[in-house]
Each structure stands twice: as structure tokens, then as C-alpha cells.
Amino acid sequence: MPPSAALDARPGGAADRIAARADGHHPLVVSGAVLVAGYVAMSAALLLVGVLVAKVFLDHGVSAFDGAITDWLVARRTALLNDVTKYATYLANTEPVVGIAAVVTAILLAFRRWREAIFLTSALVIELLVFLTVNYLIARPRPDVERLNATPATSSFPSGHAAATLVLWVGIALIVAAVTTNVVARVLSWVPVATLVWMVPVARVYRGMHHTTDVLAGLLLGAGALGVGCLVARTWQAANQRRHAEAEERPLPEMASAAR
Question: Which of 47, 89, 166, 175 has the highest CB neighbour number within 10 Å of its CB?
């Protein structure tokens, strides 16, 4: 499927079937139910990954794998790399992510691009809620190395920075592909994806804030959140189309009175 069609509800697809089964309910209610179901499914899946990584297999290869990469990166710290990773990780902090997402969402709403606004908002909400849930329950300690950032109250698994970066920039790129055919705009929208999506995870490990498996899980979370966001947006579109179709088929009051 091309990126431009990622948010399109296909006839007979999952979103269309969900909208059909929930016929009669408001599109926001139907898409909200999908959002809740997506949160439950994503939380359960990532919790399973977290238990396997941070509990079951920690002493059976995971710890050695994470430790080797962290030690290799820490041993190669330089002033230049410290600065580069500092700014890369800053762009994935809560304030910049929320600020950029708010601006993009406001622009979409101003142009009445409801589907795209619902997609980006849903994906970021899923990412945040699943992150908080899994992070609290797994409670994996951060790497035992010198950290180049202040240590937040949250634990190590998964990496919220890696997840938020993937959701934000891939989400924006998919939105640009959906709303314009301008080649330059489409190409430029993928530049942050091609740079930040790998730079931020590497920076988080380099700076001693996460294990490698944490950032890999963060990318997995981000991909899942984008998938749920797409399904929410498609479901809203399918339900909205059904609602409008039913309204058009319903006879006007004057016509109904004349028929009696």
C-alpha cells in the first residue's frame, strides 16, 4: 500500500467491517472504541515483550547483549558526539513532541482534515498510554553507567523517546502524503524519518539512558501505535461515510409527508 493510501478505509477492510457492525453509533464513539481496544492489545503485547526481555531472558543473553553495546558506545564518547546526541534526544522530549504535534493538529483542524487529525492524535495517545502502563509495570532499571541526562522518574523499558520520535515524524510524513501530491513536500517530510528515527534511539543508548533492547521495544511501540492510529482514522472515515450515506437515503420531511 502506498503511503498516500495509508489512512484510506478500504471496502471490506477491517475498518469497514467494524463500522458496519457498529452501524447507528456516532463515528467518534466507534473510533474511540477502536482506540481503547488498541490500547489494551498494545499494552498486553508489549508487556509480554517486556517480561521476556527484562525478566525471563535477562540472564540468558539479553543482559550481555545490552551491556556490550552500551559499553562500546560509552567508551567512544566525545565532546562532539555528546553535543549531537544532546540535541537529538532533546527533539524527542515531551515538550517538543507535544508542541510540534499541537501545531500540526491545529493546521489540520483549520483545514477540516478531521481524519488526519484523528490519526496523529490517536497514535500519540496510544504511544503515551501504553508507554506509561508498560514502563510502570516492567520497572526495568536503567543502565549502570554514567548518564549524560538527568534521570527521570520513569524506568528504562521501553524507550518513550524512540517511540514518540517514530510516531511523530512517520505520522507527519503519512499525513503529508495523504493531503498533497507535491513531490518536494513529500520528500522533505521523510527527511526527519530518515535521520531522527535512528539517531534518537542511538543517542539514548549512547547517553546511558536506555539499554538497546529498550529502544528496540520503543520502536516496536511506535510502529504499533501508528498501526492503531491508522485503524482509528480509517474506522472514523468508514463510520462517517456510512452515516452520510444513510442521511442521504433518508427521505426529507416534506417528501415523507407527501407520501402519507
Answer: 166
